[in-house]
Amino acid sequence: xxxxxMELNDEQKEVRDWLHGFAAxxxxxxxxxxxxxxxxxxxVIQEAAKVGIYSLDFYAQQYFDSTGLGIPMAMEELxxxxxxIALSIVGTGLAAVGVLSNxxxxxxxxxxxxxxxxxxxxxxxxxxxxxxDAGSDVASMRTRAVYDEAKDEWVINGTKTWAxxxxxANVHVVVAxxxxxxxxxxxxxxxxxxDTPGLSQGQKFKKHGIRASHTAEVIFDNVRVxxxxxxxxxxxLDERLARAREKATAGGMERVRNAAMATFEASRPAxxxxxxxxxxxxxxxALDYAQTREQFGRPIIDNQGVAFQLADMRTQxxxxxxxxxxxxxxxxxxxxxxxxxxxxSKLFASETAKTVTxxxxxxxxxxxxxxxxxxxxMHRDAGIYTIFEGTSEIxxxxxxxxxxxxPIR
Length: 409
Ligand SMILES: Cc1cc2nc3c(=O)[nH]c(=O)nc-3n(C[C@H](O)[C@H](O)[C@H](O)COP(=O)(O)OP(=O)(O)OC[C@H]3O[C@@H](n4cnc5c(N)ncnc54)[C@H](O)[C@@H]3O)c2cc1C
Prior knowledge:
This protein is an alpha+beta fold. Helix content is 55%, strand content 15%.
């Protein structure tokens, strides 16, 4: 087990500097254009693939870093560049993690390379869980997967929404109900291979922020996938369902829910790190502006009213990063989340990004309110962090339930 450290080692610093260079030289200069276009920035993803940032190898290296700091460091730097473009680059990773954590070795080897493609022909992947009537309330999911034993195929029907890269992905990972009696424990994940008949894109959403990232509905109309596309395989699923049924009848549904919660706790710090990246970017622009913009014959930072805002912004960003790093280290080292530290880090970092980016607009005055400066885009982007991967209200619910042991609603 790695000791918790608040300092990156030399190798991590090298990776951080390399990522920062890419974020500063390639991502940031392209940010305004792709925000306006509201399209997937394929040329930037291609650049990232060429240098090795858009690849399973890079992602896996950070994911398995025992200090826990690899993923938060990488997310912070890329999202510092631009949130919409960075999400286009790391969105595939969300689907890949779904396969890495539940798939067999054969599934990992077959499907993950097809999620990324290669530098000459980049592909993206999508993770489809949310539905129009099942957002925060994941257990009310309706998309159904039924096993056709005669053909050894699964038949998937339903509508998913809000899928990052949904419909444009080469490979989709979809979560569907296989046993409606078991709530979220009756769900299973499936690979939908490229060009499978019956899968289509519904509406593409026009969004407030992260507009370079494609978000759309995905419709599954009698989508048939081979039995080998069930992540983890049928035998493992049958065993898991049998165990869940046993626990449910023995009154252990609460334990079953707790196990699912532990998985979410482990993935939330990564979203917190994205929020830290956006907050830091806006803070840096505001600090620079406050030091150079003069009013009343002196830089505006000479006023406590401005300087104290910057002091608060930086304090909140550093506090958010520490919470994120702690939770990420706990996740990688299997420490129990006794106070929902994963949710805590995501809650604090995402709320910090919203506050800090709003303060940055204020410090830039009229300029902050225009698209000539990046802080208004950063503020629009920051809004997503308190919504996806569990809203702030859901994070508070999880923290409060964990602290009190009460079924708080
Ligand atoms: C840009 C974007 C990208 C996304 N990408 C993906 C993706 O790739 N894959 C995917 O599966 N999903 C994705 N999502 C979906 C995202 O995870 C959901 O939007 C989120 O979980 C919230 O669900 P909802 O939108 O249905 O809101 P709802 O659950 O309807 O919530 C609405 C409001 O009610 C509040 N609320 C709900 N229940 C409670 C409660 N019990 N107590 C207090 N308040 C409550 C919420 O906090 C929120 O403020 C994405 C969403 C967006 C916007």
